[in-house]
Design a protein that fits this description.
Number of strands: 21
Strand content: 5-15%
Number of helices: 32
Shape: elongated
Oligomer: single chain
Largest sheet: 6 strands, mixed
Helix content: 40-55%
Radius of gyration: 36 Å
Strand order of the largest sheet: 4-7-6-5-8-9
Length: 776
């Protein structure tokens, strides 16, 4: 019953009657109303109700041997019409229903008697026409035959308080079903159920009505009240605009107009879109703005299922509408779905108008409305503006670094070849294997998935002390990566029109909610160390009278863990304002803080961060270079000092296993089917994800709220300060010299008040002529 209720399958019950009677009544009522009813059953009694409008889908052996019976099929099977099936069963009996038949009467005899006499009642009145033992047995049966016939009868006129059109599967809540199926250990049924849900069409036909109209006609449409789906095409200028109010119809026109521009910029005109950030980017490149985005199907798809590799509009239509409106792109149209950019925009608008109301209902049902409307949608505009501003780059400095790196690489290569006794391609794993493991006799102890000896960095690191060639190889690799990834690549990404780099921020990639970037990927720049500092030195302010301002959250993930766990010891460590890792080590080992040496502090730091990522004793031992037993002792001591952290972590994994997902401070979900896997390694991966997602995702929530607050605060002050970049837990701004101190105080205040935790948020700020100098 709980499964049916959760799946929104209507349940019909009639006091004092079996389900068979209710089913027969519903089928008869449906057929009487002009519907086609099919009864799916393994109960032969339903053959009696077969008639025009009612068929029986009968599973003879399991669910793989199914036969569909209409009137003709029943007659051919039993040599009797459906209305005589009760007489047939009364004579031959049915052991499954404990109905005794007439001794000596099987299928053939029962069918022959009903054919000859028409009914049991007529047969009992004419037994004199029978002979021998058959006559004796029929006469002896007497009232039993009549009772048998009544027992088989299905009632078709019960007072069932339900209409046939109400007997349909409703829209079930995926998370409720997931929780129930997990608790019942239905490990594979949920995936099969989702396939069924995706295949259920909720839209009548996958056809769109796309119409080209004049600019004036489009102007009239945008003047009407109500939410509209909007799509544009163009870069540098808006080449076309398409609008849909629903029903699969969209109108479009080439170019734009003053009224359309005003409509896009009007915060009071609600708009549905797919990818708000890119819409605003396109419109901004043409000199316009976008306000009033009320729903974004791309962001909604991401929030509903954050682990997907992407959220194309076509896939979302298939999943949520059960219809493919857009189809595959035609190769001859160079990737355009309908061959022309304006028709493609119109198709997008029409599809979004159909999709948005359905997805919005599911967003609200999952409790994701706040995240979408108050976090992700406002953030899309912030990111679009950051992309448009870009950041200045010192190209000359990078070219000088690249030249120096190439010289150093050449020197290293010559020395490596000398030590190897031959020249070889340093980027060729087969050649490198031959030199290291066959010629020099080194032993890596690790193989690739294909069984070959590994030459990856983790293996070479362990061999660094075994031969001087290894250290040189690692140095060469580091310079090669630095050169190809940054020194030579970054200058090529400078936009000649602006003289700046315009990275693209990815809002719907990381399952935890973290932002990432591409072209260039700024997340890969090392946070610490000389290499990262030198790269950041190349990012500069855009003019001599301007500076870069950097604001960085301090230990935000540990503060999130302290808040979620409610551990008083960790909260006190933060409230004291002392170094958190020193304070942690002091509490674990019962030492005064001034007696905590750097090695002990380092261990405490490793555990502080490692536990949030599900690190076990083996992982800690590997990182600290100690025995697993010693690492476990350290972890046990840590949990003794902070007992509520262990309770929280255990509780988090148990809840994720039961419900199938984790939630952050703001309700951001991450689904973890790995916790239900049969493979222990996969389950362990799921455990680490369950520990990490609420903490890293919570940090992401707070960081996004901070970006929105800072953006709004700066907009209202008139300070000459613009947000440019976000990397890890940092925000990078470009600010006029005269405004830097005031801007720094504002940014710090807004970041520290972005969300109220049980421990204080702390943001540090710094500024300088370049990113490296602007260290908080």
């Amino acid at each position: 019953r709980e499964v049916l209720e959760t799946l929104k399958v209507p349940i019909v019950e009639v006091e004092g009657h079996e389900a068979d009677d209710a089913i027969a009544t519903l089928a008869s009522r449906a057929a009487g109303g002009g519907l086609q009813a099919v009864i799916v059953t393994a109960d032969r009694d339903f053959f009696q109700v077969v008639r025009p409008g009612i068929e029986v889908m009968f599973n003879r052996r399991g669910i793989s041997d199914i036969v569909r019976y209409d009137e003709r099929a029943v007659t051919e099977r039993f040599s009797l019409p459906p209305e005589r099936y009760r007489d047939f069963v009364a004579l031959k009996g049915d052991t499954s229903d404990n109905i005794p038949g007439v001794p000596g009467v099987g299928d053939k005899t029962a069918a022959r008697l009903v054919q000859e006499f028409g009914s049991v009642e007529e047969l009992l009145g004419r037994t004199a026409e029978l002979k021998g033992r058959l006559r004796e047995n029929v006469e002896a049966a007497g009232e039993t035959l009549l009772r048998n016939k009544e027992l088989v009868r299905l009632e078709t006129d019960l007072a069932v308080d339900v209409r046939p059109e109400e007997c349909r599967m409703g829209e079930w809540d995926r998370d409720e079903v997931r929780r129930l199926f997990n608790s019942l250990e239905f490990r594979t049924l949920f995936e099969r159920l989702e396939e069924i849900q995706r295949s259920r069409p909720s839209v009548a036909a996958a056809e769109l009505d796309l119409e080209a109209v004049s600019g004036a006609a489009l102007d009239r449409l945008v003047a009407e009240d109500g939410a509209k789906a909007v799509a544009v095409r163009g870069r540098g200028r808006v080449e076309c605009v398409a609008i849909s109010s629903g029903g699969g119809r969209a109108v479009y026109c080439e170019g734009t107009s003053e009224r359309i521009g005003a409509f896009l910029a009007d915060p009071g005109a609600p708009k549905w879109v797919h990818d708000a950030k890119e819409l605003e980017t396109a419109v901004r490149s043409a000199g316009g703005t976008v306000e009033g985005v009320a729903f974004d199907t791309l962001l909604a798809g991401y929030l509903l299922d954050p682990a997907q590799p992407g959220y194309p509009l076509r896939d979302l239509c298939l999943e949520h509408l059960g219809a493919d409106f857009l189809g595959e792109a035609d190769e001859e149209s160079e990737g355009q779905l309908f061959g022309e950019p304006w028709k493609e925009a119109a198709a997008e608008a029409a599809a979004v108008a159909l999709l948005a109301p359905v997805m919005e209902e599911r967003i609200e049902r999952a409790g994701l409305g706040y995240l979408l409307h108050e976090v992700e949608l406002p953030l899309a505009g912030v990111l679009a503006r950051m992309q448009a501003r870009g950041v200045a780059l010192d190209v000359g400095y990078l070219e000088e670094m690249a030249g120096s790196a190439r010289d150093r690489m050449a020197t290293l290569q010559r020395e490596i070849h000398r030590l190897a006794g031959e020249e070889f391609n340093l980027n060729s794993p087969p050649q490198l294997r031959t030199v290291l493991y066959e010629k020099l006799g080194l032993s890596p102890g690790k193989r690739t998935p294909k069984g070959q000896l590994s030459t990856d960095a983790s293996v070479l690191e362990k061999l660094r002390e075994d031969h001087p060639i290894v250290d040189l190889l690692l140095q060469w690799r580091e310079l090669d990566k630095l050169n190809s990834t940054y020194l030579e690549a970054l200058p090529r990404l400078v936009d000649p029109a602006t003289g700046r780099i315009h990275t693209t921020f990815n809002q719907v990639v990381a399952a935890t909610g973290r932002l990432s970037s591409a072209n260039p990927n700024l997340q890969n720049i090392p946070v610490r160390g000389e290499e990262g500092r030198r790269i950041r030195r190349a990012f500069v302010s855009g003019a001599p009278d301007r500076l870069l301002l950097v604001a960085d959250y301090s230990q935000i993930e540990l503060r999130i863990m302290a808040h979620l766990s409610g551990d008083e010891g960790l909260a006190e460590a933060f409230a004291s304002g002392h170094d958190i890792h020193t304070a942690t080590a002091a509490r674990v080992f019962g030492l005064p803080e001034d007696q905590v040496d750097p090695g002990t502090r380092s261990r405490a730091k490793m555990v502080n961060y490692g536990l949030a990522y599900g690190m076990n004793a083996y992982g800690l031992a590997s990182r600290l270079g100690i025995a697993p037993d010693e690492a476990q002792e350290f972890i046990d001591a840590y949990f003794e000092g902070f007992p509520k952290i262990r309770e929280y972590l255990d509780r988090q994994v148990a809840r994720a296993a039961a419900e199938g997902f984790t939630e952050t401070l703001l309700g951001r979900r991450r689904y973890i089917p790995e916790l239900q896997a049969a493979n222990p390694r996969v389950r362990d991966l799921g455990r680490r994800m369950a520990l990490n997602a609420p903490i890293q995702g919570g940090a992401s929530d707070v960081f996004k709220l901070a970006m929105i607050r800072v953006d709004r605060a700066l907009d209202g002050t008139g300070l000459d300060c613009q947000m440019l970049l976000t990397v890890h837990d940092e925000l990078v701004f470009e600010v006029a010299d005269a405004d830097v101190e005031q801007a720094g105080k504002l940014v710090q205040a807004e970041m520290e008040s972005a969300y109220e935790l049980s421990v204080p948020l702390r943001a540090d700020v710094g500024w300088g002529a370049n990113w490296a100098e602007a260290v908080p």
